[in-house]
Amino acid sequence: MKQYDGFVLKIGGKYVGAILANGHPEKPVVYYMDDPDNAKTWKTPQAVRKARARIGKGGDILIYQQEGRGRRIMGHLGKEGEEA
Hints:
Layout: E1 6-11, E2 14-20, E3 29-33, H1 45-55, E4 60-67, E5 70-76
Antiparallel strand pairs: 1-2, 1-4, 2-3, 4-5
């Protein structure tokens, strides 16, 4: 298994930058970024899956590795927490 630093969400070609409940946790406000280096990150597969479910739009869970000041996308997260 490859070493990774965390996960980012990609929905509709953009990366999730922030998720805000704003008093309505059932319908959060989601901000998107074009650059994965500025996107919100999650450390565990469980946390990123909960965030994706909270947004309710599906999307790709991408595995990244930190390289200097940027992030390198390593692949997709599969069904059971394994790299796909």
